[in-house]
Amino acid sequence: MAKKQFNVASLANELEQSAFFPSRQSPTSLPTQAPAPSEQPEPPAKKHVSAEPRNHGIVETRIPTPPQSNPRPFHFNPSTKADQKYTLAFTEEELEVIEDIKLDLRRRFGIKTSKVELVRCGLGELIEDFQKHGDQSRLVSRLKTQHHEKK
Between helices 115-133 and 138-150, what is the axis angle to 10°? Predict the structure, then answer.
C-alpha cells in the first residue's frame, strides 16, 4: 500500500492567501546583494526583564460565597443515563472498597449495581451537600484538612 503524498506547495499557496498568514515578499523582489557592513542595522537592544510578578501590589481577597451560589441546583437522578466518559484515577484500596460495597448491596439488599453507578451516587451526594451547605459542607471541610496537612 503506497503512502499518500502530501502536496506541500498547494498547502503553502493556500496559507499565503489566508488572513492569518500575511504574504511574504517573493524571492524575486528581495535584494540580490547583502548591504555593506556599515549599512547593516544594529541589533535591537535587549529588553529588561523584571523579576517582579505582573500583579505586584494587587491583593487577592476571597469573599465567602453564599451556599446557594449555583442558580440551577443539582439533583442527582441515578436513572439518568450517563452519556459522557471521563477517566479518573483511584487507589487499589478505593476500588476494593467500592467493589465490597457493590457486593454488599447485592447480598444484603438484592440491589444489583455497578462501580460507575456507585461513584455517580457518591458524586451526586457530594454536589448536593456542597450546594446546600457551602463552606460548611463535608467537601470543604475535608479539603481544608487535607491541604492544611500538606503544608
Answer: 90
